[in-house]
Design a protein that fits this description.
Layout (H helix, E strand, L loop, with lengths): L1 E3 L15 E6 L6 E2 L4 E7 L2 E6 L4 E6 L6 E2 L6 E4 L1
Antiparallel strand pairs: 1-8, 2-4, 2-7, 3-6, 4-5, 6-8
C-alpha cells in the first residue's frame, strides 16, 4: 500500500503550520487509476496543485474529504498497487 501525500516540493516556501484545502477528488474509493493520473486538486497559499497517482492501482481509502484542510505530510489517500 502507498500513502498519497501532497508533494513536499509544493510546501518548500510555505510557513510552518500553514494548511492546504482539498478542493475536490476526481476519483472514488475502489476506483482503478493509472500512474500519473490526476486524483484530485488541492489549494495551498492561493495556488492549486494536482494530486497525482504515483503508480497504477486501486484507491482503497480517501483519507481527507473535499473542502477539508490538511497539513504538510498528511495522508490524503491510500493506493493499493
Amino acid at each position: 500500500m502507498t500513502d498519497i501525500v501532497l508533494d513536499d516540493a509544493v510546501w518548500a516556501d510555505v510557513e510552518e503550520g500553514t494548511e492546504a484545502l482539498l478542493q475536490e477528488w476526481q476519483v472514488a474509493e475502489g476506483e482503478q487509476v493509472e500512474s500519473g493520473q490526476v486524483l484530485g486538486v488541492a489549494e495551498l497559499v492561493k495556488t492549486t496543485h494536482e494530486i497525482l497517482a504515483p503508480a497504477a492501482g486501486k484507491i482503497t481509502r480517501l483519507a481527507v474529504a473535499a473542502d477539508d484542510t490538511f497539513g504538510r505530510g498528511a495522508v490524503l489517500a491510500v493506493l493499493e498497487a
